[in-house]
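Hey, resending since the last one bounced:
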Amino acid sequence: MRHDAEAAAVGGASGAADRRRFQILAVVWVSYLLVYLARLSVGPLSPFLKDAFDLSNAQVGALMSATAFTYAPTLILAGWLVDRVGVRRMLAAGTLIASLCVLTLFLAPSYGVVLGLLALSGIGAGCIYPSAVRAVLLWFPVGERATAIGVNQTAINISGIFGAVTLPAIAVRLGWEYGFLAVGALGLAVFAVAILGYGDPPGDDGDAPAAPAAATATATVTATATATADRTLPSSPVAPAPAPAGLLTLLAARDVRLLALVGFFLGVVEYSALAHLVLYLKSEFLLTAVAAGAVLALAEASGAVGKPVSGLVSDRRLGGRRRLALLAMAALALVACLALAAFGADLGAAVYVVVALLGLSAIGWGGLFGTAAGEIGGRAAAGQVAGLTAAAVNVGVFVGPPGFGALVDLTGSYALAWLTLAVSCVAAIGCIWLLDEPRELCPQPEVCAVPFDEL
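The structure tokens again:
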């Protein structure tokens, strides 16, 4: 009888979650949109910033990397915090900090100030990714997670499309400062949406990972898992404090390290391309800044398609397997980078096809990556693993764009720079090949008594 009552309660909570999960996804989506509009605004504004401050290609790349300087460590802290204080608080803090920093760029008098404010905005941006992963992991069942995270990460690409189309036009008419002003003002509106629109799942107070109920163990769970699920957990609404060695446990896990390396290598590829594509198209194909921005928008649009479609294929066609889908995305990115390195301006109109392929793969991998991170971490550590692995991505963001620009400055050509990105794709493929299919990693068995996919 006790198990029947608990099962009924869980079923009612699940029904409530079903009714609200898409509203929650929309709130998280617009929060993600804002922080990436701020981060990706450097690419379409790069010609104007380069002229305004007389910058080298390496200095332009450093602007893209500036947010990564603070974003990467913030991801680790934010991942730890969101597993404890809840998604709503972290979304609100992140959108507010990022918006205020970008607004202040309107008054920036020098390259150094722009660099510093972009770095500070990374603190706010770093709060969003682990919050988004945790929100999806709490609200969506396992068969929908990769699709949901893929849809959520289209916000990155929609923001890139919006920025690539609108920011150069604003800069031409009013100046680059007004582009940042528009982004910051939009951010304050998103902050209000995050405060008012996000709510916790039924039965979850948002302050800590909820202790799983024994009723979640079904007839299909093994006897060992059922026995584990029947343990009585503390009745406090806040889960036990994490063990001091929890972070070390996560870092020691082979799959976490491999996934972090995948993120690093693909982060180098994605953000180097985003930072330099407009300048590359202007230099090699003689496009105007506005026309090159439109091609950048094509890459972003392709990435926006790639994320949910690859997630849907992983969820429905591959039975929830993430590894094969990630391998395919990295391989397609390799083909695109090799084509740009080998043919350059000789591609002619075919460059649009190559850019679309680059966007589909080198930008479209993030949804699968986030899903794998969340599933490795489980309910107790989804935010922490998402934060750790995303921090590795942003180490790639930090070194990739300025390194790409330095190679162009050194050689006077883009060929070696694109070839370097191809090598990074090969390294990512090697790490994915060694990666196991995502499985729960629980540093505290008493918190993760029930297998994550049964929650």
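The domain at 2-204+245-454 is CATH 1.20.1250.20 (Growth Hormone; Chain: A;).

Sorry for the duplicate.
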